[in-house]
């Protein structure tokens, strides 16, 4: 079995300092190093390929997926049928909803997208696994008083969500929920609002603060939710600090904060409505995405965080690189603008696949398929950033295949794509989602990815 970046197996021990429960799990190492073998034998999607676990491990292709925490989630279950050897690279700059409240009071990176992907990857094979997934996926009511009352009921172990969770899991999860509550109480000057709060986010935040390590928190969450050991969930930046995303529009406007760029809510903790029609259009198209200091308001406050070394390691080994559908500038590009990412991707002789959105959103209004390609190329080249760190690679060094949902709203300008050196455009079946419009049919999309990988190897 391939070594994973999530660390060794859990060790149970008793702490030598006061802690709300007598036992909990901790990794003996927070190392993020990992490896996928470079075996180039691939499976098709027939059931006969899952009969032998050892053979499956050898034959599965390895993928790295750049995505956010929402759009690609609907594909995860179907992707498991092709391979579980997937490195999911996610941003840590989300500042909307209950995540914003955690960051406001306790600081640190945003964990909402990571928690969301971990839950999608979690085990569902037993009744206890389903109970743990249900607990960590639960959201509190929108009413603040009702949310606070339910939260206390959960922390005290009296809520019905604990039914089906065995004592070892219960004590482990409650320990970190209680630690999260303790951290809130210690910030007496800040009043925490539990409205619409995610129990998984609270657990994640408690673990991160306790271990003082985002990697260790991911390790713990992955073990508690029983994610396959060969599936990696990697923050694009491994940090304990708060990260703020900024964007520069073509008219010179600077917007601070991922949520203000993508789905402005005016600070409301209401669930984000991601329908394009529900938010006002931007005054100008987005020129670039960058990181800024937590108190910054303009280009003078731009900062340059370091990419997670595990991301670069996986990029240098995987059999296929995927840019997932979703919020192009706030979910995908934050993982691409970091120094070192474009250098490695451009050097890799492997399928580099862009999954085109089925409809426009606030960030991409008016863009064609070639416009998406240009945006990704500019992000990886860091075209509009520090001139000393810019690359001059052409688009097909970053993207050599495009997968398009049938009947999507975004124009596929084949001639412009050809001028960018992209000739492989695959149209796959789609379905209509009443909230967001045209989306990929998961089975059709994964089959297309499997075919692209196989064709490349041949």
Automatic annotation (TrEMBL):
GO terms for molecular function: LPPG:FO 2-phospho-L-lactate transferase activity. CDD domains: YvcK_like. InterPro entries: CofD, CofD-like_dom_sf. It holds the Pfam family CofD. PANTHER family: MATERNAL EFFECT EMBRYO ARREST 18. This is Gluconeogenesis factor. It comes from Aquilegia coerulea.
């Amino acid at each position: 079995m391939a070594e994973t970046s999530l660390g060794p197996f859990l060790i149970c021990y008793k702490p030598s300092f006061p802690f709300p429960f007598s036992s909990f799990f901790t990794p003996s190492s927070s190392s993020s190093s990992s490896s996928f073998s470079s075996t180039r034998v691939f499976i098709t999607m027939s059931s006969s390929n899952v009969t032998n676990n050892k053979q499956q491990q050898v034959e599965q292709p390895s993928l790295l997926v750049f995505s956010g925490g929402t759009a690609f989630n609907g594909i995860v279950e179907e992707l498991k049928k092709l391979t579980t050897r997937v490195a999911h690279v996610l941003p840590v700059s989300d500042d909307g909803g209950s995540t914003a409240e955690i960051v406001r009071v306790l600081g640190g990176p945003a964990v909402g997208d990571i928690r969301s992907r971990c839950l999608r990857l979690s085990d569902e094979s037993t009744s206890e696994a389903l109970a743990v997934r249900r607990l960590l996926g639960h959201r509190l009511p929108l009413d603040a008083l009702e949310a606070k009352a339910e939260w206390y009921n959960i922390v005290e172990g009296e809520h019905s969500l604990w039914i089906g969770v065995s004592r070892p899991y219960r004590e482990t999860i409650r320990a970190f929920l209680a630690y999260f509550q303790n951290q809130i109480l210690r910030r007496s000057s800040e009043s925490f609002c539990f409205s619409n709060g995610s129990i998984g986010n609270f657990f994640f935040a408690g673990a991160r603060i306790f271990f003082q390590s985002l990697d260790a928190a991911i390790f713990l969450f992955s073990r508690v939710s029983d994610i396959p050991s060969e599936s990696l969930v990697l923050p694009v930046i491994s940090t304990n600090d708060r990260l703020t995303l900024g964007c520069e529009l073509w008219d010179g406007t600077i917007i601070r904060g991922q949520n203000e760029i993508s789905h402005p809510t005016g600070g409301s903790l209401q669930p984000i409505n991601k329908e394009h029609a529900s938010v006002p259009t931007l005054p100008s198209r987005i020129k670039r995405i960058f990181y800024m200091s937590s108190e910054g308001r303009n280009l003078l406050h731009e900062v340059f965080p370091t990419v997670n070394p595990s991301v670069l390691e996986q990029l240098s080994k995987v059999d296929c690189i995927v840019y997932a559908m979703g919020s192009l500038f706030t979910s995908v590009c934050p993982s691409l603008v970091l120094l070192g990412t474009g250098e490695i991707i451009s050097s890799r002789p492997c399928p580099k696949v862009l999954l085109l959105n089925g409809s426009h959103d606030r960030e991409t209004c008016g863009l064609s398929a070639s416009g998406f390609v240009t945006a990704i190329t500019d992000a990886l080249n860091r075209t509009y950033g520090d001139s000393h760190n810019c690359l001059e690679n052409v688009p097909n060094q970053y993207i050599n295949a495009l997968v398009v949902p049938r009947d999507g709203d975004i124009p596929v300008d084949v001639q412009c794509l050809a001028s960018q050196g992209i000739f492989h455009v695959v149209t796959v079946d789609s379905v209509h989602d009443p909230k967001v419009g045209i989306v990929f049919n998961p089975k059709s999309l994964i089959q297309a990815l499997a075919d692209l990988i196989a064709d490349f190897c041949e």
